[in-house]
Design goal:
Helix content: 25-40%
Radius of gyration: 31 Å
Distance between the termini: 35 Å
Strand content: 25-35%
Keywords: Cell membrane, Chaperone, Membrane, Protein transport, Transmembrane, Transmembrane helix, Transport
Protein name: Membrane protein insertase YidC
CATH topology of the largest domain: Beta-galactosidase, Chain A, domain 5
CATH class of the largest domain: Mainly Beta
Structural class: alpha+beta
Subunit structure: Interacts with the Sec translocase complex via SecD. Specifically interacts with transmembrane segments of nascent integral membrane proteins during membrane integration.
Shape: elongated
Number of domains: 2
Number of strands: 24
Pfam family, one: YidC_periplas
CATH architecture of the largest domain: Distorted Sandwich
Largest sheet: 11 strands, mixed
Subcellular location: Cell inner membrane; Cell membrane
Length: 588
Amino acid sequence: MQQWARIAILGAMFVVAYLLILAWQKDYGHVEPKVQQEAVAVSKDVSADLPNGQTATATTDVPQANIATTQQTTDATAPVSQQLISVQTDLYHLWINPKGGDIVRIELLNHDKNKDSDDPFVMLESDAKRTYVAQSGLIGLNGPDSSRNGRPVYEFEKTTYSLADAKATQDKDGKAVKVLTVPMVYKTTDGIEIIKTFTFKEGNYPVVVNHKVINRSAGAWQGQMFGQLKRDNSEDPGKSDQGIFTLGTFLGGAWGTPDEHYNKLKFANFSEEKLSVDAKDAWVAMVQHYFVSAWIPGDIKLTQGEGQAFTAKLESRKSADDMNIIGFTSPTITVPAGTVAEVDATFYSGPKIQSELKDLAVGLNQTVDYGWLWPIAKLLFLGLQFFHGIVGNWGWSIILLTILVKLILWPLSSKSYRSMAKMRVIAPEMQRMKEEFGEDRMRFSQEMMALYKREQVNPLSGCLPLLLQMPIFLALYWVLMESVELRHAPWLAWIQDLSAMDPWFILPLLMGVTMYVQQSLNPQPADPMQAKVFKFMPIIFTVFMLFFPAGLVLYWICNNSITILQQGLINKSVEKDRVKREEANAAK
């Protein structure tokens, strides 16, 4: 009975992992990439379809305003320019298109394209390879982005900005940091001046995008700020190839509010299940493997007033050319003649670092999606972080974490292993009873239960260690797959990426050996068929582990090795107790 239960649990582990792979293949499976061309900074206009307020159609990239628009006064001086504004900080290289002021390309300098390349990871881009951009502006009655003449073309001071040229200022903690501002100006002939400013801070991914409306006209100005992410249906560039499997996490839209912290929206559902929510302190994002881009609505500030967080309308939609768009719009802002108003939002595009995301908006850190086992996964990640702070290597951190987990579970698992050791000791007696009682199964069962009671053996307790390890195993898998800190993290020698499969298959083979040794310490099934199935388990799991992340296999090897030590010590102890008891009985 005990052996069948253990085999059933091992089989369940195999089936669960296999179904997990099938689910990934179905939802995030590999899509054959189109023929790619060398990426350039920008090769097409990402704002070709213009909004007209209430008359906006499905071809509109920019969101529809909630008020009717009028014919806009156009810029009288600036010609349409294809020159991009280049901004480089210590974390990324970014390009802004003066037409509309959209961010059309971001290269993350601290993250490689892949483990075999020194090229930076491209987060946003608009070229022959892919369309993924961050758009923002002012729409509505007088908003220039609603003009029938197209997106506004901003004037700019220079085409190249660098954080090295920025002046150091003090932050709220009194620490000196460099802050870089990139202003762009749009003027109309009737006295409206709009200053769009991008603010970058040293060591920070978030960018504050501010629109300042200076009304020198004779009438009031009305408009709304919008911020949105526009992406095609191309595959996730952060997806990892695991041999015959292509594994990835969620690719699609996401949004959150203080009441509903984290919600996912697949690209396929952008039309069928459109997002339409009004909320304050909300956010919208596009999520991919290891990285995220997000808009967090900010404040509205009128002349000589304090900034006030506004209730934003969160929306998603499909464009006519099947682009996926998710974003927000602010309430209508009225700027009376002779006054000034400002409205801003924060834009984040970079790695999913939980400590940074949780400070930007409630629930944004949950884009690091650990699935339904997130409480266990979160604890495992915190443990890995702690050990990494000591040893500075994620591979050794996994080993230390495994030791810690085994120490915590040691008392509970020891009871199970002691029961299994007793089962091993009484195995000859059970074989004798089976031969003695032959086909009398009822008598055999009665004698066997009496033996269990006399020896204080629980035949099902051997299943407990496996049951304890299953959620930890799966949770650690999600930690390795979702935590950008472990992306391309080396351990030693041939293991240069713990989040990818072992290229030489050494770790899976070692895992198979440790699993075989561990099973040899367990009581062997009396039934020959069960024994054969039991012996095949290490081979099955070895083959399956060939395509799992090396960090996960490393955990399993360490876990098995400690289990072998623990179980070996307990087996010797139980055997000694058995010998002493027999000697004591013989002396009587």
